[in-house]
Amino acid sequence: MIYGLNILAQDIQDDSDNVTRFLMLAREPIIPGIDRPFKTSIVFSLEEGPGVLFKALAVFALRQINLTKIESRPLRKQLLGASDDSNNGYPKYFDYLFYVDFEASMADEKAQNALRHLKEFATYLRVLGSYPVDTSMI
What we know:
By secondary structure, the chain is an alpha+beta fold. Helix content is 15%, strand content 30%. It is built from two helices and six strands; from the N terminus they run βαββββαβ.
């Protein structure tokens, strides 16, 4: 036990495929500056159809925003209580959720424009947060 928490797996830091992500939670959104490099993490869902994922990712390419991570999670037939501007908190069904990290701050106008564009056809969109890129660890 560490900090009153149970250890679920030992020595994962020694696994070469291990990736550790840390989260900082806040009650109110904090808009970061653009004075240093930032990454932003989002999650979204799309209707199924040809070229829909291409269209979603193109909103970033058109604005020269580099994507650093893309993951998809299948959620077929699972009801997700999602709260965003478009669905008023009512549970919805999603086929896939896409988790994307990109190199830009939410204070950056091109990031705001990309997300406004994505929101036009995403069935769900949530900004998980923006955070500074720690270049001293690279």
